[in-house]
Amino acid sequence: MSLSGFLLRGGLVLAALGALLASPARAQSDEPGCRPEMASYRLPIQRAALAKDEVRLTFIGHATFVIETPGGVKAATDYNDYVRPPGIPDIATMNKAHSTHYSNRPDPGIKQLLRGWDPAGAGPARHDVTLGDMRVRNVPTNIRSYSGSTDFDGNSMFVFEIGDLCIAHLGHLHHPLEPGHLRALGRVDIVLFPVDGSYTLDQEGMLDVLKSLQAKVMIPMHFFGGGTLNRFLARSQDLWPIERRDSPEIVLSKATLPAKPTIIVLPGH
C-alpha cells in the first residue's frame, strides 16, 4: 500500500471513531443500563385499528410506554431525551428523579406536557386533563433527593383513563403507598411498576404495593437487565401467574382482562 493510501485509510478510521464518540447515543445516564440505544424500537407500519373499548400499550424501554386510545390519542410516559418513542405523542408525562425520566428538550409538537413536579417548588403538581378519549391525572409522591433527604411531592404517579379502563404508571416510586394515595388512585385495572429494587422502592415493598392495588394486569418496568427482573419474578411466582410475551405491544380491554391478577412481562428495547 502506498503512503498516501495508508494515510487515507487511517484518516477514515479516525473520522469514524470520532463520530462514534461524539454521537449523542453515547451519552451517559445517572442510572445504570439506560442508554439511548434502547430507543431503537420502531412501530409496525400497519397496525390493526383499536375497537372502541380497547387500549394499546407499547413498552419502549426503561420507564417509557406509549398508551394509545381507540380515538388515536397517544401518551408517552416518563418522556425523556434517552429513550424516545417513535413519532410525537399527544401527551407526555415526566418525572424528575433522574434524567432518564424527563426531557430538557421536549418536542414542541406535544399538545400536553405534564411534569410530575412543580418546577417552581410551590407544592405538588396538579394535573387533570382530557384530550379526545383520554383523561390523564396525577397523584404526587415523595422522592429521595441526591443528598439523601426527602423531596416532598417531587414526583407523580400518572393515571390514564380510557373508556372503562384505568391505567396507573407508578413512575419513580420511592416509598410504600399510604391510604391517601390508594384513594387518589382509585380502581386500577392495569399497573406499570418499577422493579429495580434500589433506585426505586425495594422489591418487597413493591410487592406490598401491588397487593394493595389488586390490578388485573401488572407490567414490570425499570429493570436493569434480566437478572433484576428475574429476581422480582422469583419473589412473585407464588403470588400471581406470570406471562411472558414476545411482543412489546399488548392490546387490552375490560372484557379481556384476566380473571385474577396476572403479571405480564413485555420485552423492553
TrEMBL record:
Any Pfam family hit: Lactamase_B_3
Signal peptide location: 1-27
PANTHER family with a match to the protein in the record: UPF0173 METAL-DEPENDENT HYDROLASE YTKL
UniProtKB keywords: Signal
Transmembrane spans: none
Protein name: Zn-dependent hydrolase
Lineage of the organism: Bacteria, Pseudomonadati, Pseudomonadota, Alphaproteobacteria, Hyphomicrobiales
InterPro entries on file: RibonucZ/Hydroxyglut_hydro
